[in-house]
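Hello Y.,

Per our agreement to keep a running log of every chain we model this quarter, I'm adding this entry. I've kept the format consistent with earlier entries: sequence first, then predicted structure.
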Amino acid sequence: MPPFVSSYSSFKIVLTAVFGVLLACGLPGGVQAVHAQDFEVTGTVVSADNQSPLPGVNIREAGTSRGTVTGPDGGFSLAVDSPQDTLTFSFIGYQTKTVPVDGRSEIRVVLETESQELEGVVVTALGIERQQRSVGYATSSIEAQDLVDVTESNPANLLQGNVPGLVLSSNASGPNSSSSINIRGVSSIAGNNDPLFIVDGVPIDNTVIGGAGKFGGRDGGSALSVVSPENISDISVLKGAGAAALYGTRARDGVVLITTKTGRTSAPGEVSVQYSSTVTAKDVISGFSDFQSQYGQGTQGRAPSNQDAALSAGLSSWGAPLGEVDEAPQFDGTVRPYDDVADRQGFYRTGLSQRHSLSINAGFENTSLRLSASHQNTEGVVPNSGYEQTNINLRGQTRLGGLTADASVTYQNELTDNRTFLNDAARNPNYLISFLPNNIPKSALQPGATEEGVEKQFTSDGLPTNPYWAVNELEADDDKDRILGNVNLNYSINDWLSLQGQTGLDWYSLRRTNVDAFGSAFEPGGSMTEDTYRVWESNSKLLATATPSLTDELSLRLDVGGSLRHRQFEQVGVFGRNFSIPDLETISNTANPTRNYDFSEQQIRSFFGSASFTYRNYLFLTLTTRSDWSSTLPEDNNPFVYPSVSGSFVFTDAFDLPDALSYGKVRASWAEIGGDTDPYRTSLTYGIIGQHQGQALETITQLSVPLLDLKPTSTREIELGFETQFFNDRFGVDFTWYRRSTVDQILDVTVSSASGYTARTANSGEIRNTGVELLLTSIPFSTADWTWDSRVNFAANRSQVESLAPGLDVRVGPENRLATANIAQVVGQPANAIYGNTYVRDDQGRIVHGEDGLPLSGEKEVLGTGAPDWTLGFSNTISYQNVSLDFLIDAKWGARSSPEPTPTPTATASTRRRSTPGRPVTSKLAQTAGIRRTALLEKA
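Predicted structure for the entry above:
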């Protein structure tokens, strides 16, 4: 048996022993003796909503295993040991209630609905519900009523502007594009900075397959769209390490907890049906305001003199001022007026989207069911692009004595047509249309193909694709099927001890097809790629919860458990170019197609525990620890253990303070979270690259030298904060300060290619984040008919790269095609800085030119950063009786770049550059505003 498996076997034995001890403690004397039942209690259980009887309510005598359920009329009868015993009443969708018998032979019990129970309650790690006052770290929640009118297919976008410290960025790649979420700054030098997403207690895979690269690439779409917004009950965001420590390595950058709706109805036996339909329209209404409109196509201040000159000039707008030349030949040989006819927005269309959703809820005596389905059909603003999505979800809950079962399954199908390519490379229709010179009408490019059926080229450089050829002839389609499954069992052994077991499955298959049509300028013979991705992930956990009574003033909650995560990734692909028959776009029609295969697998086994102490319901302390065994780390560095401690003090309950202060609490936490890495970074992996004389040619598949003694990363964070409410909760303040450091980062460091590798894996580097978060809540006015609720959230973060590998001060990320600027980590600078070329300047800051009159290139420097200094969200709800108006303002400030020219817009003279206010200058020499100036500057 492998040592790794043996370690886990030992872990299971220890875990079983722990549960055995807890079970023994929960059953005094090991097994309870049967006592005489000499007192009978009868009664009725009704709902607080409408006083209707509640059948199927579970009733248990405290400290024993005896119990019963109410009948169809809500009535019950139960024999108990003593007239002084206590009964516990529980029912799906209602608050659990404990009632002392107090010698009564007949009792009437009223149960409150669950929504009333959850007031002042937040969902924390492992789905544990805790009083807001007891939590020692910052959390943010979005309730169901705030999601009612949202039409987003991507749940991540629901967080926009609603959570302090959360920054959301979306790709402009059409419908269902992916979103990147960053909480409290960048913490990883080389890895993913997105939070962990949990749906009904089970982690789901949020990996985005694809993205922008040096030579293009396309977005893989949102992995979170598998959760329909109509099914979401609430979203909680755990931002700090103290909140997320129990979730382990993937929770280093925070956790987003999504709770979906159940089939609970207002009364047993009731069935409710809900249907909604929305239609939205999107237009391109901005984005071209910075484009100059004074100059046309050409070079050196002159318009093209013939067709070849026009093809050579391409996207260059370094031509003559518009109006100085009457007409000029263009790329197709046609002579057209040399006027401003730019109509970039005219290329796009209005993107219509329709979304329909249907849900059926059914509640019975001990069971609730919810069946929901949604369908969305969206047209992209780019012609011939679109997205179609179908989601079906079934969830059921049932209770049998002390056992509660909750199970759900979701199926999703996504079809994406012509997902837009990214970057400034071929296939992207937005690229050429954005930088098309002002004197070229877009109609001249239509329909994209010549009479011979090949691409109508605008430039002698075949890389910029004719936008109409891209949308009409190229193909970039996705077909994705996904299944989520979740089973959760919870058994109450007695009134203070319970066991929970949960397992979840996330499986999807994605087929991607790319076709470059025969006659494409960048691929004259055409090409085709077909890739199939399969991802399978399972997550299982076992949790024991004990709430023993210590004293009248001091209580304790213990949570002890273990979990297992198993993930497999598989990719099968085939690529071929040069179609034998031009219009037959199949792999078998290409010459010498090549195939590729990729597979990876990883496991994480964990053991965790939490102890929460409560003193007089105003002083709280929570201690946690977690130990992980990761298959991606060497055996000698497993397991890795990390703790956390948090506490809170509700001082308004401890002291007699002025009535104006309704509520006051201070909180603090310290936590550490470990982190692993991708598979196969600690040993060599091998593959086959072909055959020679019938023999396989083997090779080492990785380009980075593995690190045999790879250690886990470590993220440590301290957080301080306070919460206050004034004037009977009419005005509230929630403030947080934090400092977080991530050390021993796992990254690749460049080495000489003479070694046969391009990099080596290293444990090195530190990033530090410091920030503040502020939430202001208020009710400016409230009457019998009118209510105005207002929320303002503010956050500021400062990140800094403290160190990289020894001897390394700059680590450059993936390059763009022109290699002029990159995202890089630079010691002493903010994380993810923009790092690129500069000009040589003199003591007065003027650009220095060489003898040829061209500006001299300087050293690469930090040009700016894409991360905002601060963010602001301002949301308001104004309600009149049953009608409400909601609006949200989301602002980001501080992302900035150097005034040095940016590659494509400046190189093509498409955008405005100014030497003095109000005067556009687009000459390559004049715009530099340096020591030498040409006559063209005087003409500008």
